[in-house]
Design goal:
This protein is mainly α. It is 71% helix and 0% strand. The chain has seven helices and no strands. It has helices spanning 6-33, 39-52, 57-65, 71-91, 95-113, 121-135, 144-152. Helix 5 packs antiparallel against helix 6 (121-135). The protein is elongated and about 50 Å long. The two termini are 28 Å apart.
Length: 161
């Protein structure tokens, strides 16, 4: 039972976008309260992921040669990035960019947990949902993208709104 009109579909996409924003912000707040965004927290997270789950060899090597070389810096970056992605999706601001960023974030989680004990298909569903929110321009309904569009018109680079 889906709406036949475009506005009804946009509202469904907006609901998906808002849900993803709330999910990212709530998870980020929980992670912050657990100290996950500190250097030790990041190291502990990847130690847990790799000991319980595995992840492909190339992914382990990539994480080891980048993130784990400066975990405190990455922890701060991760905190800010998750906040911006969650807020962008929740508020419908620059939704295509926020949605694609969230899709990359969720795809990263998929890679981290491949071959382990987690049910990885949750991350596939989240990745696809974020892509739908981005490509459907879901911020144009119940979002700040609609306000920007009305105020400034279609942007030169239409991808951003």
């Amino acid at each position: 039972m889906f709406p036949d009109d475009v506005r009804g579909l946009r509202r469904l996409f907006a609901l998906l976008r808002i849900t993803l924003g709330v999910l990212i912000l709530a998870t980020s707040a929980d992670n912050l309260s657990k100290g996950l965004y500190s250097g030790g927290g990041i190291e502990g997270l990847f130690e847990y992921i790799f000991s319980k789950n595995g992840g492909p060899a190339f992914y382990r090597a990539l994480i080891g040669s980048t993130i784990l070389q400066a975990p405190a810096v990455f922890g701060a970056f991760q905190l800010v990035a998750e906040f911006l992605l969650g807020a962008g999706l929740l508020l419908g601001l620059f939704t295509p960019v926020a949605g694609l960023g969230a899709a990359v974030f969720f795809a990263n989680l998929f890679l981290a947990y491949v071959g382990g004990q987690e049910w990885i298909w949750t991350y596939v569903l989240l990745t696809v949902s974020a892509l739908v929110a981005a490509l459907a321009r879901s911020g144009r309904e119940w979002g700040l993208d609609a306000w920007l569009l009305a105020r400034r018109g279609e942007p030169r680079f239409a991808f951003f709104l």
